[in-house]
Design goal:
Elements lengths: L1 H25 L5 H14 L4 H11 L10 H11 L12 H32 L1 E2 L4 H13 L6 E5 L6 E3 L5 E5 L8 H17 L1 H14 L4 H24 L4 H14 L8 E3 L5 H9 L9 H43 L3 E2 L2 H5 L2 E3 L7 H5 L4 E9 L5 E8 L5 H8 L3 E2 L2 E3 L2 E3 L1 E9 L4
Parallel strand pairs: 2-4, 6-13
Antiparallel strand pairs: 1-2, 3-4, 3-5, 7-10, 8-9, 8-13, 11-12
Length: 435
């Protein structure tokens, strides 16, 4: 059952990522930030099963028997999603698969933990920059970008590229000696790029995808999504730098100087200036292209896609629960129509008896000296006939004889406000052996 649910979730998430990829192709001439958020949505989908949204829909349409959904409808869902009533993987393999997944999960987490410890140590060892050319440029660009909380800048002797480390309190790591190689305009462009990472909260969204990669390490698609996210993230920051007045050639030359100066590759836990496919980035930076803004048509397309992704499963849950609720409500109405609204005591009904048939004492009960009372619950119809007899208590050898006798009883109609009504009552039949 677990493997079937996991298979359905992976299949649905893969299809969702394919749909996101199709949208990125349609929006390939738009700003990179739009495509970035589409890829991020595809990543987050791995953490949100469609079954959860369907359950929300079921909850919104809750009824006392909502769990008893239409079996035909569920069978259709399983067929569409490729599920089978029984998982194809033997249960004996489940512990081995769980152990394999856990090894992969812990391996990925361990690698990232080592990277984080390495960067955390470099941050502690770095000296805070409180003044100088870099600090002045950073504060000026912060004001232009609307960053209210100042970003700490630290000068590091480690062979790392300029980059933002941290989520809650981001720190700009600045390699010692890099400033001497950069012109003022190049320094401003590199700092603007890093500030855009802070403004966009790229380290936070990168952490979300790192969780996806750790959980679904066995799925190649999540690693491919990670590469797309880094690519579009860096391209989005490049576009922001150019929109804020950065010169294309000087900016591209500044990035290349940073790459020549810094030997270490960018870390997963850090947003740097040299991330992504550097060759493609240089081509895009140097190529003057008209980037299309999201017009009404594209906005409607994205809105429709988002609505279908979120509201679709919820609506399915509502529709799936509606027949059950209707069936439940119908059953309740039927039960209410079957149950009389009036209950009468034994004394009241005894006074209305027109015909009373004594039961035949069963021979087996006589020989076993069995005697006592049989209490029956009955419905007395509007015509005075006895209906729906049920045994409340009594010996099993006596009860059939009591039921057979009471079936033949006849009552006067029970009147309520002058009209005959059905009435529920209890009938006691005594079985006593002669001494």
């Amino acid at each position: 059952m677990i493997l079937t649910a996991l298979g359905n979730h992976l299949w649905q998430s893969t299809l969702f990522a394919a749909a996101a990829g199709l949208l990125t192709l349609i929006l390939r001439n738009c700003h990179a930030r739009v495509r970035y958020w589409l890829w991020l949505a595809a990543s987050i989908k791995f953490l949100i099963p469609f079954s959860l949204l369907v359950a929300i829909g079921n909850r919104l349409a809750w009824s006392p028997t909502s769990a008893l959904t239409n079996p035909r409808l569920h069978f259709a869902i399983e067929v569409i999603s490729g599920a089978t009533p029984a998982t194809a993987v033997p249960r004996a393999l489940l512990p081995a698969l769980v152990a394999l997944w856990l090894c992969g999960f812990l391996s990925v987490i361990s690698l990232w933990y080592v990277e984080w410890r390495k960067m955390s140590a470099a941050t502690r060892d770095a000296a805070p920059l409180l003044q100088g050319r870099e600090v002045e440029a950073l504060r000026r660009i912060e004001r232009i970008a609307g960053i209210k909380k100042r970003i700490d800048i630290r000068q590091s002797r480690a062979s790392i590229e300029p980059g933002i480390f941290g989520i809650v309190r981001p720190v700009l790591m600045w390699p010692d000696g890099i400033s001497a190689r950069l012109e003022d305009s190049q320094l401003d462009a590199i700092l603007t790029h890093e500030i855009q990472h802070v403004r966009r909260r790229d380290n936070f969204t990168a952490a979300i995808h790192m969780i996806v990669e750790a959980i679904f390490w066995f799925h190649p698609l999540v690693w491919w999504l990670g590469a797309r996210l880094v690519e579009e993230r860096e391209r989005a920051c490049d576009e922001d730098v150019l929109e804020l007045g950065g010169e294309r050639q000087l900016y591209a030359e500044g990035i290349l100087k940073v790459c020549e100066f810094c030997l270490a590759s960018p870390l997963s836990c850090m947003s740097g200036v040299a991330g992504g496919d550097l060759k493609k980035r240089m081509v895009h930076i140097m190529t003057e292209r008209m980037l299309h803004k999201l017009d009404v048509g594209r906005k409607l397309l994205l809105a429709a896609a988002g609505l279908a992704a979120v509201a679709g499963p919820i609506a399915f849950g509502l529709i799936n629960a509606t027949p059950t609720r209707a069936q439940s409500d119908g059953s309740a109405v039927a039960q209410q129509s079957e149950q009389p609204a009036v209950h009468a005591s034994k004394e009241e009904m005894t006074a209305l008896i027109l015909k009373k048939v004594q039961p035949e004492y069963p021979e087996a009960a006589k020989k076993a000296h069995i005697q006592g009372q049989v209490i029956l619950k009955a419905i007395i119809g509007k015509d005075g006939n006895v209906e729906n007899l049920q045994i409340v208590s009594g010996h099993p050898q006596l009860a059939p004889a009591a039921i057979e006798a009471v079936k033949q009883w006849k009552y006067k109609p029970y009147l309520k406000q002058g009209q005959p009504v059905e009435v529920e009552t209890e009938i006691t039949v005594n079985f006593t052996l002669a001494k």
